[in-house]
Design brief:
Strand content: 5-15%
Structural class: alpha/beta
Bound molecules: adenosine-5'-diphosphate, magnesium ion
Number of helices: 11
Largest sheet: 8 strands, mixed
Strand order of the largest sheet: 1-8-2-7-6-3-5-4
Distance between the termini: 28 Å
Order of helices and strands: HEHHHEHEHEHEHEHHEHE
């Protein structure tokens, strides 16, 4: 515990909540502690990831332990991998169980960028990673689509859920990325209905943001239970 505190201090990681998992020190530890598969480590090496960023050090073990979290870390600090890594590790490989992870982004551009990063990280593994586009929703057999990880704006997911074209009852991970922007853009209602449609009781929700205004923190506390709060640096820098 002393060691955890020192490590957090060194990396400017501030946490609150109960039973918080120790921060991860390295990719080597990701393998020894959490049995990270070699395909993922190889992809990371290819992408030039040598060291974990502070948000990754703390958020990855939290989500791998099945705990919910809301996290605030500066732009460019590697938040995408902080949630994609535990999702890829926990889902293990493709399945026919339907959608098991949903990542909501405030804009289509950000959703497309996240989908590209996800595909790069998942290389050498046969995941079905889908970016929700207009064409995809319109396609005739959309409801039979094989998909493990769905990446979308909240608007598009909600529309598809309403038309009963999307079943989210088996979703194990729900991520709200750039949640401060989700708020600014007035997307809270859409987010809320997606949260409700993800009815699996053992779902792990998380929220990532560059700033943590009170509105975002309130949302986090209403939709998550026993969540751990992680802040890198200062709250609204
Ligand atoms: P954020 O969402 O916090 O703004 P991103 O997740 O988009 O940041 O990451 C910014 C850039 O840093 C991306 O190009 C990403 O691939 C890269 N990156 C993320 N994690 C690492 C790491 N551990 N080592 C090296 N580069 C990284
Ligand atoms: Mg981001």
């Amino acid at each position: 515990l002393e060691r955890d505190a020192l490590s957090r201090k060194k990396h400017n990681i501030h946490v609150s909540g109960s039973n918080i998992p120790s921060p991860l020190e390295s990719f080597v530890e990701l393998k020894s502690r959490y049995k990270c598969k070699s395909y993922l480590l190889r992809n990371l090496a290819e992408l030039g990831f040598r060291e974990l960023t502070p948000i990754q050090m703390q958020a990855i073990p939290i989500l791998l332990s099945g705990r919910e979290c809301f996290a605030c870390a500066p732009t460019g600090s590697g938040k995408t991998f902080a949630f994609l890594c535990p999702i890829l590790m926990r889902l293990k490989h493709a399945s026919k169980d339907g959608i098991r992870a949903v990542i909501l982004c405030p804009t289509r551009e950000l959703a497309a960028q996240t989908a590209r990063e996800c595909k790069k990280l998942a290389k050498r593994n046969k995941f079905y990673i889908k970016l929700m586009t207009k064409q995809l929703v319109k396609s005739a057999d959309f409801s039979k689509l094989q998909c493990d990880i769905l990446i979308s704006t909240p608007y598009r997911v909600r529309a598809a859920v309403r038309k009963k074209k999307l079943n989210l009852s088996r979703v194990e991970f729900l991520v709200l990325d750039e949640s401060d922007k989700l708020f600014e853009l007035g997307l809270v209602k859409q987010v809320d209905s997606v949260v409700k449609a993800c009815s699996n009781p053992s779902i792990v929700r998380s929220l990532f943001s560059a700033t943590l205004p009170d509105t975002v923190e309130e949302l986090a506390r209403t939709i998550m239970h026993d969540a751990i709060r992680v802040i890198i640096g200062r709250k609204n820098s």
